[in-house]
Amino acid sequence: MEQIILSLAIVMLLGVLCIKCFSKLGVPAFLGFLLIGILLGPYATNILNIEFMGLTQEIATMAMVILLIRAGLGLSRDSLRKVGRVAVEMSCIPSVFEGLLVMIVGHYFLGISFIESGMLGFILAAVSPAILVPRMLNLIDKGLGTKKGIPEILLTGSSADDVVAITIFSVFLGMYTGGNINIVWSIASIPISLILGVLTGFLTGLILLYAFRRWDFSDIEKLFVTLATGILLNSLGEALQGRIPLAGLVGVMVIGFLLLDRMPKVALDLSNRYSNLWIVAEIVIFVLLGAQLELPLLIETPEGLFAPVIIVGILVICIGLIARFGGVFMALAGSGLNNKEKIFCMTSYIPKANVQATIGAVPLAAGVASGELILAISAISIIFTAPLGALLIDFFNDKLLTKDETLDNSKSIEVPTN
Hints:
Layout: H1 2-25, H2 29-40, H3 50-53, H4 56-72, H5 77-110, H6 114-124, H7 129-142, H8 150-177, H9 183-214, H10 219-239, H11 248-262, H12 264-291, H13 295-298, H14 309-331, H15 339-348, H16 354-359, H17 362-365, H18 371-400
Helix pairs in contact: 1-2, 1-12, 2-12, 4-7, 4-10, 4-11, 4-12, 5-6, 5-8, 5-14, 6-8, 6-18, 7-8, 7-18, 8-9, 9-10, 9-11, 10-11, 10-12, 11-12, 14-15, 14-18, 15-18
């Protein structure tokens, strides 16, 4: 335990110093966090405690809960009503397009079976909330693209996008391992999972509203209660996996939405507190991601590949992104967005991190023949797309989106820019 605490202290100290240095350079701080992780990890100085690194999945889950509660606290009823249909299409069409094309390309470029490349395709098909959500909330705060609900489309679409990608990945994994997989039911479970997630989040939110009105909670107590409730809701979804499809993380976002709708003053205060909490979570999760990147494998050229893994991996990822762009363009048809706004939505769907770090190693653990290769390309997708996507979003947001001059800045939510 002492070594875990020591590792955490080192990570937090270096992370805060990184924020200070990178902010002066105008570079996203999470790039520095990744670099810190690589330098402290087993393939460099090996300073980080192995038990601390073993907590990556648990910390990633908590970070996702923080992000999605914060996302819900930034979604108003009017904005959701305006973007409903488009957000639903953005949650599934881009990821399906990307996953299927990677499945085909991976089979021929990597020399693996269609089922194995299908697993890879839908690992890569999930967008990263850790990169996307804070930046969309900043856009809402600045009033950029809010008149047409662009940040809201991307927030709600990306939260369900992960559910779709992970569900289809599990279908391919079950087909490979010989599990009793009902493909029709697996596909049908996607909308069922989302609907049950929304309903569960709504009911949980109503209970929280009653508790906050009935008893006098301090602001910090409300923060801990909502965070604990979000973690429990996500755990419920994981516990029911394989029996009742329930998208717990979607329900987590609904809690935030309901609080903003019914108790806006409380929601705005919580939003600022979650923004500060995210700074801590962001430092830890990205340092751990960097520490677990298996660098030696990336530069190898396994038998059957025409180039090192990193070259072939980037090629496969780029082809998948082209399919994702096509899916985004199709999903936005009839949305009223102009070409500049559609291009911004495409670039916003580039970054990958959380899901790839969480399930990238699952095929290897399950005994899939190409498990190491899938893990390596998952790592490459993080290194390549997370910085690229973040930089493009930050660079193009005020160039491609229109500012809503009617925004009431007195009600804006303060969000850190790291």
